[in-house]
């Protein structure tokens, strides 16, 4: 059986600006830049009637659009599409709760907090924690240390 | 959805608040550049100013306090994330790691995770800080440290912490959140450096984390367990029953039981999926009770899909269906429960018409795998109309692609005609991106399920008509092979292709097929005045000037065949051949054909002509080369791939011996094993200009230059490498392996260069060297070592080359070459290549010069039968003095000139060096051009003590022979007679090469 895992997570806006990039495989910087551009090109041309999945190189991108932001997870072709699609939504709901109606600039200026949220929920290319309650409790605890 | 992102249109409104809310400096940096519409240059200027400021702070006399340090490191990170390069601040970030404040530590770790690469010099300092945090017993700090390891995952970190993390993971007093991080951290290290993560007492305790009360711990630990189980299934098999009972508890719980872990009324969807995934590492449980419980779970999941939804939200149905699809994957994986398979199929059938595009897509995809199960194949087939409809009406091309894949998968004899017709009509409007694959699929289905071959011919000609540009050579070669092999379809094929050629604009591929088929079977329709020989010729020739050189070459061959089939066309055709545009064509190939064919038609008698231009004999049956091609293409429709070889023209019009070999095999219609190397080989004669029995056309093949060496997985070490040390060991569409080796005494070093020929990276690239059977490590040591510090680069980027070094030590003599196994993933499919490394005993030859008297004296001394090996073999392509000499030198021996009284003969001397012994060898090669040498009885090896030596020589002569035969001349019937005499010296540890054993 093939081992499946998340290859990377990207949050991009419609203009292609990266708001978060989390890599779970070794890529060099040029390759990362190429991937970022390719993902943007692949995802932004799709309309709402299309699936939330798109084949990408040897992988597939599971993505969902929230206002002007695309949340993309790159996984192996045989991995579970819907689980990751809801994984994205679960993550977005946590962000929304944590930042009280999250907006794009929250991700820009609080980038270091966003990384913490990601690491709480996804680690080493796997889903680490799915309970919104538990994640938020932990985040509030960390916030109190600031 | 509850989450509402403010769109960019609202940004200006939000800004006012942000001024206070966010750090002033970050704000000015960012907002100035974005909202004051700074030019790129101005932005860079601004950033550089800021960087200079930070640099001066770091370099300043005043030591910065933790807060300022954090602030500036954070700014650097921010600038980096805006897309600018950062080349300082690493040390300050490392300093932050030892802070006691969470925020400072966190920024330090974040900087390192994002910016420090694994081979940084700072790694020791970083590891030190991590070590302190891991032993701090502060769960927050421990998690930060673990996340850093998981994010960086370098080998140095694995070396430092692979022992510690398992202890943290299974310790009784570890906090739940730390356990979660530790489990995934360990997973990362195991994937990156499996050799450093040692199984031990902790392994069994890890399995029991499946029982942990904390669902988050289970969620994290199960990923680790799945990975470990897939690598060591036996050690972890107790996880099956634990996973089943955990799953059963979740599945049967009410939608609110699991509280925190219920997502839109679905209990623990992600954990359920992971449990179902873990079970896919194993066959169905043997224990009846466990199995019963699992089947119950799967049934419950299928039942729930039929229940009315508990929420109208898409999140609810997605979460529920995520579990359902994973359950169906498990059912398909087991492929043993007909009842469940059919139920799964029915469920997917419902989804095929669902209003959610996602579900239609997933149903098509999942059904594709169901179609291959004998239990559900029929059930899948009932959905054919829906799938055809999807192919026609879906808006998303990837959904249409899945529909095409499914049609291909569900095709059998009963519905082939319908499916092929639908695919053909889809092709007319299909997206360019998927046409080539569609063409291959149609071609394969048409061949596989052809009941009458006229339908097959129609289909392929339609394919060429509709999508000629996408019809690869394999496709039209194949139709010709099939027509030639089936005389019942030849007349029909000729008639149909003749009609197809009538079209004013027809594709060049049609001309190729037309030229070939009319050249062979035009006589079958020549009785009809509408397709009389001259009409046929004129029709073909009317296309001539529009075609490329290869097609023109093929047409010229068709013309010469016409002269044989229809003497009445001879004058016309000779006229054409004689014209300046042919006989003086600037293309050498065309000119040569025109000249040769013209000459042939004028000097050869009818009988000779009839023999030379005889109808093509049937091709040996073998696997369709199209199928091989499709397998190579990625996509779920294609089955998993064993490595196939060879591709296009370079391969097809290979070297002289190859083309000749195939042509000869074809003309004798006895497929010799030597020609049976590749599926494509059989196509070689087709690709060329209809080579019939005569050797005349054989040399036409020889102009293509040297063929790329090829090796199917079963091939012996390419004989090529017996006498040479460098070259291309293996090549296919994806991968090229170059080799460079050097030998001294009994030691060797081999450099392997793995080149990725594609533009896509190879994942999980691993190589292993093993010594088969007798060739154990005590005979030949092959120690692969890498020039990199990493054991094997798991990724090979597109177009990149990875180098590997193998050190070889020959301990004693051996026969079998060590095997090199290469595994990697390309396009999701596992590629598995096994090659013999070209290590042969002669590599350890040390040449020995000696005078004639010396040589013959020794030769006579070695007179016992067990000291001699003789071999007589045909030089299938003749002998060229220089080539032979080069081969003998390449063998590693010294070629002794002016030693043998017969100048025709070659004598050589050398010593094979192994660690425990030396084998002195004298070799004499007697070419015999008369070919009347009766082979002497094979040397008998009734030896006890000398067995290893005889062995060595046997293999050595055996491997010499093919390489000697490899010279590329066309003379036949010459023989080479090799006599080798040898003696063994057992090495004395103190006095090397002293005592003679016989």
TrEMBL record, chain A:
Primary location recorded for the protein, binned into one broad class: membrane
One GO-annotated biological process of the protein: intracellular protein transport
Superkingdom of origin organism: Eukaryota
GO molecular function terms noted in the UniProt entry: clathrin adaptor activity
InterPro entries: AP_complex_ssu, AP_mu_sigma_su, APS2, Clathrin_sm-chain_CS, Longin-like_dom_sf
Transport as UniProt keyword: yes
SUPFAM superfamilies named among the record's database cross-references: SNARE-like
Location of this chain's protein in the cell: Cell membrane; Membrane, Coated pit
Domain AP complex mu/sigma subunit: 5-145
GO cellular component, one term: AP-2 adaptor complex
Keywords of this entry: Cell membrane, Coated pit, Endocytosis, Membrane, Protein transport, Transport
Record membrane topology: Peripheral membrane protein
Keyword Protein transport: yes
Subunit record text: Adaptor protein complex 2 (AP-2) is a heterotetramer composed of two large adaptins (alpha-type subunit AP2A1 or AP2A2 and beta-type subunit AP2B1), a medium adaptin (mu-type subunit AP2M1) and a small adaptin (sigma-type subunit AP2S1). Interacts with CCDC32; the interaction is direct and mediates association of CCDC32 with adaptor protein complex 2 (AP-2).
PANTHER family registered for this protein in UniProt: ADAPTOR COMPLEXES SMALL SUBUNIT FAMILY
Protein family membership: Belongs to the adaptor complexes small subunit family.
The name this protein goes by in its record: AP complex subunit sigma
Species this chain originates from: Esox lucius
From TrEMBL, chain B:
Cited Pfam families: Adaptin_N, Alpha_adaptin_C, Alpha_adaptinC2
GO CC, any one term: AP-2 adaptor complex
Compartments, as annotated in UniProt: Cell membrane; Membrane, Coated pit
Signal peptide: none
Molecular function, one GO term: clathrin adaptor activity
SUPFAM superfamilies: ARM repeat, Clathrin adaptor appendage domain, Subdomain of clathrin and coatomer appendage domain
Keyword Protein transport: yes
Annotated residues for binding of a 1,2-diacyl-sn-glycero-3-phospho-(1D-myo-inositol-3,4,5-trisphosphate): 57, 67, 71-75
Compositional bias ranges of the Polar residues kind: 666-675
GO biological process: clathrin-dependent endocytosis; intracellular protein transport
Membrane-topology descriptor: Peripheral membrane protein
Keyword annotations: Cell membrane, Coated pit, Endocytosis, Membrane, Protein transport, Transport
Domain Clathrin adaptor alpha/beta/gamma-adaptin appendage Ig-like subdomain: 719-838
Disordered as annotated region, ranges: 638-683
Keyword Membrane appears in the UniProt entry: yes
Alphabetized InterPro entries for the sequence: Adaptor_Complx_Large_Subunit (IPR050840), AP2_complex_asu (IPR017104), ARM-like (IPR011989), ARM-type_fold (IPR016024), Clathrin/coatomer_adapt-like_N (IPR002553), Clathrin_a-adaptin_app_sub_C (IPR003164), Clathrin_a/b/g-adaptin_app_Ig (IPR008152), Clathrin_app_Ig-like_sf (IPR013041)
PANTHER family xref list: ADAPTIN, ALPHA/GAMMA/EPSILON
Assigned protein family: Belongs to the adaptor complexes large subunit family.
Role description: Component of the adaptor protein complex 2 (AP-2). Adaptor protein complexes function in protein transport via transport vesicles in different membrane traffic pathways. Adaptor protein complexes are vesicle coat components and appear to be involved in cargo selection and vesicle formation. AP-2 is involved in clathrin-dependent endocytosis in which cargo proteins are incorporated into vesicles surrounded by clathrin (clathrin-coated vesicles, CCVs) which are destined for fusion with the early endosome.
Subunit structure comment from the entry: Adaptor protein complex 2 (AP-2) is a heterotetramer composed of two large adaptins (alpha-type subunit AP2A1 or AP2A2 and beta-type subunit AP2B1), a medium adaptin (mu-type subunit AP2M1) and a small adaptin (sigma-type subunit AP2S1).
Name the record gives this protein: AP-2 complex subunit alpha
Organism of origin: Esox lucius
Source species taxonomy: Eukaryota, Metazoa, Chordata, Craniata, Vertebrata
